[in-house]
Fold:
Amino acid sequence: MINRPLSVKRRSAAGNGKHRLKHPIRTTNLISAGVVLAILVVWMIVSQQGIVDEKIVPSVRSVWEALVSISVEGYKGSTLLQHLGASFFRLFTAFGLAIVTAVPLGLLSGQNEKIRAAFEPIIEFVRPLPPLAYYTVLVLWMGIENESKIALLFLACFAPIFIACAAAVQKIPASYINAATTLGASNRQVFWKVVLPYSAPDIFTGIRTAMGHGYSTLVAAEMVAAASGIGWMVLDASNWLRSDVIFAGIIVMGITGILIDKIFRLAEKRLVPWKGNL
Amino acid sequence: MINRPLSVKRRSAAGNGKHRLKHPIRTTNLISAGVVLAILVVWMIVSQQGIVDEKIVPSVRSVWEALVSISVEGYKGSTLLQHLGASFFRLFTAFGLAIVTAVPLGLLSGQNEKIRAAFEPIIEFVRPLPPLAYYTVLVLWMGIENESKIALLFLACFAPIFIACAAAVQKIPASYINAATTLGASNRQVFWKVVLPYSAPDIFTGIRTAMGHGYSTLVAAEMVAAASGIGWMVLDASNWLRSDVIFAGIIVMGITGILIDKIFRLAEKRLVPWKGNL
Amino acid sequence: LTGCGGSDTDSSGENGLPEKVTIAMQPLTSVGIIPVQEDGFSKMDVTAEVKNFDSGRDMVNALTSDSVDFAMMLGICPTTVGLTSGSDYKIIWVDCLIRDSEGLVVRENSGIKDVRDLKGKKVGVTTASSGHYGLLCALEDAGMSAEDIEIVDLQPDAINSAWQRGDIDAAYTWNPTLINLKNNGGNVLLTGADLAEKGHQTVNFHVVRTEFAEQYPELVKQYCSVLADAAALYESDPDKAYEIVGAYHELSVDETKEQMSDEYVTLENQLSDEAFGNDTIAKNILEVAEFMKEQGEIEDAKDLEFFKNAIDTSYIEALLAEQQETEE
Amino acid sequence: MTIRDLSLRYEGTDHSRETLALSGVNLDIMEGDFVCVLGPSGCGKSTLLNIMAGLLQATEGTIEMLGEPVTGVDWKRAVVFQTPTLYPWLDVYKNVAFGPDVRGIDKKEAEDRAKTYLNLVGLADFAHARPYELSGGMRQRVALARALVNDPKMLLMDEPFGALDAFTRNTMQDLIRKIWKETKKTVFLITHDVDEALTLGTRIIAMSPRPGRIIKEAEIGFTLQMEDSQEDARYSPEYIHLRKEILQLMAEGQKG
Amino acid sequence: MTIRDLSLRYEGTDHSRETLALSGVNLDIMEGDFVCVLGPSGCGKSTLLNIMAGLLQATEGTIEMLGEPVTGVDWKRAVVFQTPTLYPWLDVYKNVAFGPDVRGIDKKEAEDRAKTYLNLVGLADFAHARPYELSGGMRQRVALARALVNDPKMLLMDEPFGALDAFTRNTMQDLIRKIWKETKKTVFLITHDVDEALTLGTRIIAMSPRPGRIIKEAEIGFTLQMEDSQEDARYSPEYIHLRKEILQLMAEGQKG
Ligand SMILES: Nc1ncnc2c1ncn2[C@@H]1O[C@H](COP(=O)(O)OP(=O)(O)OP(=O)(O)O)[C@@H](O)[C@H]1O
Ligand SMILES: Nc1ncnc2c1ncn2[C@@H]1O[C@H](COP(=O)(O)OP(=O)(O)OP(=O)(O)O)[C@@H](O)[C@H]1O
Ligand SMILES: [Mg+2]
Ligand SMILES: [Mg+2]
Structure:
C-alpha cells in the first residue's frame, strides 16, 4: 500500500493537497463513473431478469418512467419541481431562521462564558434528540401547518450553527484581538472587523453541517399533514406501494443533496477564501 | 463585549484553553444549573396553573409519575431499562458493524485514490439522504425484524466514520512516514505503527459523530413493527396521546444522549491522549 | 432476496412444519384481539408470534418482504393496494364488516350538519386507509369530490393532536380516535354503517402469504379455526369478549363495548351474501380499486376475476365441513 | 517611559499554579531609544511588553508614559508580535490601513499614509495580495508597516524576526535599523539573538529567569556604525567582549 | 557517497507548473565528512537531501553510496527533519527505540542502545514523557537520538535547528559537534545560518537559486578549534572573510 513513490506523492500532496483534491486526475473520475454505471447495470440485470420482485426492486425502466412522469405530469397535483419547491421553502425558511438566531447567540456564547453556560445545557439536551421523538409535541404545540414542519427543521439546523459559532469565537488567538486594539480599534470594531471575519470560515462549516442535518430531517418533517414536498412524495408513495416513485424520489433527493452541498462548497470558496489560512 | 481584561483572559485561554474548558469555574456551573431549574419552574407554573391543556403540556408531576411508573412497572411489557436495552442493542450492533466496515474501507480509501474514487459517489449519494426516505425500501429488502432497523442505523453511522478515516489518512504529513521508512520500517509497519495511530484521533471524532447520527435515527428505526425500544415507546405513546410518556421518553433520550457523548469524550481522552498534539 | 426477512418458514422443523408462524396485527378493538390476548394461537401446531404494526401499509410491506405469514385485521384499502400492486397473498377470512367503528366526525360548534357543509373545510384522514375511501365515498354520495374540501393527510395520532388544537374541522377516522374525538366535542355525521347502506361496504380481512398457504394449508386452516372460535365467543358471550379485548387495551368493559361496534363475522356467516358469498367481497374490493384508480392513487384497478383469485375460501369450507361432521 | 517596581503575578487555574512572572522591574526609556531585551525563555519578556502595551495590568508598581500612567492600550504604542497577526480577510493594503481606518482618519489621508509605509517596507507591488500569499519576511514587513502607519510614539516588538530564516532576518534587521534612524521612534525590541540585540539597540537589557528582573543594562552604539551592511562593528573587541559576557549570563540563567 | 550530474524535475499539477529543482549537481562525500549546505530558500536543498535519503528518485544522474546505487530508503542513512517528527502516541523512550523495534533487533540490545543514546542527548530522565511535553530543543534532541540509535553510516539533517531560539540552537550545535567528534559519522547538514555552517562543518557548500547548482565549495576546520565553547575561531580573519564572501554570494542569489 505504501511504497516509495507514494510517499513522495504524499509529499506533494502535503504542499499542494488542496489543488489535487479539486482537480483529481482523470482516472479517478473514470472510476467513479464506472462504479455508478456498474451499479446501474447490476440493478438492470437484477430487476429485469425477474430475479427479484418488481415490488422489492423496481426495474430501471419503471423508475425512469416514474421520474419522467413526475417531472412532466407531476405526482398528486404537483410536479417534481413544485414538490422540491415546497420542501425547499420549508427547509430554507427553517435554515434562514436558524442562521439568524444561532449565529448571534453562538457568537455571544463564545464571547461570554456566562451566556454560554446558560445555553449549553439546552443545546446539549436537544442536540442528540431524534427529531421524531419530539415531533408529536411540536405538532401539539404548533399545529399541522408549515409551522411545526419548519420548527422541526429549525431545531435540526440550530445546534450545529450555534456550536460552530461559539467554538469559533473561543478559538480566536488573543494576538488577533490585541493587534486590533493596539491599532486603535474599539470593542465594537474588534467584533465586526476581527472576531466576525475570523470566525466566518468555521461559521460557514457549521452552516453546511446544519444544512445537512436539516436536509436529512426533511422526510420526517413532511410526515404529518403535508400534501406536497419531496419527502411527502416518498412517504405517500410508500402508502400506495409505489416502489418506482419511492426509488425516483430517493434518486432525486440524493442528487439534490449532493448539489446543495456542492453549492455550499462553492459559496464557501467565494465568501471565505481565507479559510485554512488563519 | 470585548474589554481589556477579557482579552487577557483569552490569552490564558489560548495557552491553557483545554484545562479551562474541562474545569469551568463555579459560576458557570451555577448558571447552567439555574437555567435548568428555571425551565423546570416555568414548566411547573405553565402546566399546573391550567394555562395550557394537560395534553399539550403535561404537568411536571404527571411526567415524573410516568417516569417512575415506566421505570418500575414498565411500559407495555418492558421496563424503561429493557426499552433502553432493546434500543441500545440495535444501536450498538449497527454502530459496531459500521466501525468494523467503515474504518478499514475509509483507511483504504484514504491511502488509495482509486479506491476512494470508487466509494465516493456511493457515500456522497447516501450521506445526505433522509433515513426515512429509504426506510420502506429497507423493510422491503430486509424484513421487519431487527435487520432492517440495524441496517438503517448502520447507514446513519457509516458515512461519518468512512469520511473521517479517509480524510485522516490523507492528512498525514509525508515527514511522519518518511521518518519511519528511513528508520527501517516496512510498508506494513508504517501502516500499523504510524498511519493508524496518527489517524486515530480523527477516526475517534468520526466515530463520535457517527454515534450522534445513529442516536438521532433511533426513533425512525423503531417505527416499523417494534414492540420495545425507547424510540418505539415514544412513538407508541404518541399513538395513544400519552403526553406524559412522550415527555418522559424525551427526557430519558436527552439525558442518555448527553451521557453517551460524555462517555465517548472520556474514552477519547483515555485512548488517544495525543489528540491535538499531532 | 426472498427469505432474508424474519419469518422462519424456510427452515422447516419436524413434520415438515415451520418453526413458528409470524402474524402481523394492528391493535384494533376487534374480535381478532381475543386469540392474541388469550393465547388462542397455541391451538395451532406451531408457535405463533404476533407482531404489532401501526398501519396496514406496514403490514403489507411485511408480507411482501416475507417477514410475516399472516396479517390480521387488514383494512380493505391496504389489502386492495397491496393486491393491485403485485403483493402475493390470499384473503382467507373476513374479520368484520365495518359499521360504527369508522366514521366522519365534525366539530359540534362548527355548524356542519351535512356532508355538503364540508365544502372548503379541512378534513383529517389517513391516506390509503379505509377512512380515506370512506370519506371519498361520502363525498361522492353527496355529489362532491375531493377537490371541494381540503384533505389533510394525518395518521390517527396526528388527527388527535390536530383536533385538540382545532387545526381541522372534521375527520374521517376509526376507533379509538373516533370515540376520542366524539368525546372532545365531536359530532358523528355518518359511519361505516351508513356507507354500507349506500353500497360502499368496507371490511377488515385476515390474509395469508400465498407461498406460505401453499406450503402449509393445514396451518392456515388452524389459523381460521382460531378466528372462528373468537368470533363464536363474541357471538355467544359478548361481555366475555369485551372483557378480553378490554384487558388487552387496558380499557373498561363499557369502553370496549363502545368501541367494538362492527359486525364481526362468524364462521357460519363467512360465506353469506354479506361476506364472501356471491362474490360480494370481491366486488367490494373491485369497487375500492376502481375508485382508487379514478383518484389516481393506483395505476391498475385489475378486474373481478383477479380479486376472486385473491380470495381463498377453501379453509372456511373445510372448517364448515368438519363442523358438520362433528355435529352429525 | 518610566517603569517603577513593576511586578506581575499570573493567577493560577485549576491546572496551573500561580506564577510570579515579573518582580521589581525598574526601567526608564527615553524618546528615541532603541532598547533590546534579552533573556531566557519564560523569563517574562513578553509579559513586560504586554504591560507596556497596556494589554496587561501590573500587579504592583507603576508604569508611566510621558508622565501619564498607562491604563490601557493606546495606538500611540504600536505592537509587532512574533507571528505577524495580519488579517487574512483583508488584502495587504487594507491590513496596513487598518489603524487609520478604525481610528476614523480621513480616507484620503489614510490612503496616502498606507501607501507611504507600504513603499517604505518595499511592498507597494503587493498591495492587493492576501497575507497568506506572502513569505514570512514579507508578512513581517506588512506588520511593521501596519504598526508604523499610525505614527505611534513607541514601537514594541516581541521577537519580530524569531520565525524568519537567517538571510531574511538580516534584511529585516537592516530595514528596522533604517526605519529607526529615519523616524527616530522609540523602539523596544525583545529578542533571543544576542547579535541582533547588539547590532540593533542603543541599549541592551538582560533579564533573569523567572521571576524576571533586569540583571544587566548597557548603553551600546554598534548600530550607529552598521551603515549599509558594513558589519565591521561586529568584530570590534568591545562587541566580542560584550557578546561573550551576555552569552555567559544567559547560559548561567538557563542552568539556574 | 558520490553524486554525479544529478537533476530533478517536479512534475506539474493542474495548478503548479513543472519545476526544475536541481540541475547538474556533483558532489563527493567522504566518510567522516561534516558537510554543511547553504543556499537561498527554494534552491533545492531539501530536494537534494531527499534524493540522498532515497525518498525521491532523481530525474537524471546517479547517486551511489559505498559503490552501490541509492534506490530507496535505507536505515543506514538516517534523516533528521526540521520539525522533529516524533510520534506523539509513543513516549520518548519508545520513539528512540522505534528504529531497532521495526528492524526487529533483539529486545535487550535495542533497550540498551536506546538508553545509551537517550543518555548521550541528556534526556534519560524524560524517557517516559510524551514528545509534546518537551520543549523544542528537547524534541530535536530526541529526534537526534532516534536517528543515531540505528547506528547509521550517514546522518542527513534538514535545518534541524531552524525552529529553535538562539540559545537552544547554540547548545544543540555543541551537542552535534560533540557527537560527530565521538562517533565520526558522516554528516550532511542543511542550514540557513552561515555561522552554523562555518562553526560545524568540515566542508561547506553553497547552492545557487533554483535550479539548484553548487556554486561554492570550501574545506574548513573551524569546528575542530571550537572545543568547549571556546569561540575564538569565530573571530579569526579567515572566518570573517569566508563569512562575508558567502553572505555576499547568498545576497546576490536572493536578488537574482
Ligand atoms: N496567561 C498566562 N497565565 C499564566 N501564566 C502565564 C501566562 N502567560 C505567561 N505565563 C507564564 O509567565 C512566565 C513568563 O511568560 P512570558 O511569556 O512573559 O515569557 P517570555 O520571556 O516572553 O518567554 P519566551 O521567550 O518563551 O517568549 C512563563 O513562565 C509563563 O509560563
Ligand atoms: N513536491 C513538490 N512538487 C513540486 N514542486 C516542489 C515540490 N517540493 C518542492 N518543490 C519546489 O522545488 C523547489 C526546491 O524545493 P526545496 O524544498 O528543495 O527547497 P529548499 O532549498 O529546501 O528550500 P527551503 O530553504 O525553503 O527549505 C522549490 O521551488 C519548490 O517550490
Ligand atoms: Mg515571549
Ligand atoms: Mg528545505
About this structure: The first helix of chain A runs from residue 4 to 22. Confidence is low (pLDDT under 50) at residues 1-22 of chain A. Chain A has twelve helices and no strands. The pocket of magnesium ion (ligand 3) is lined by residues D 45-46, 158 (CB under 6 Å).
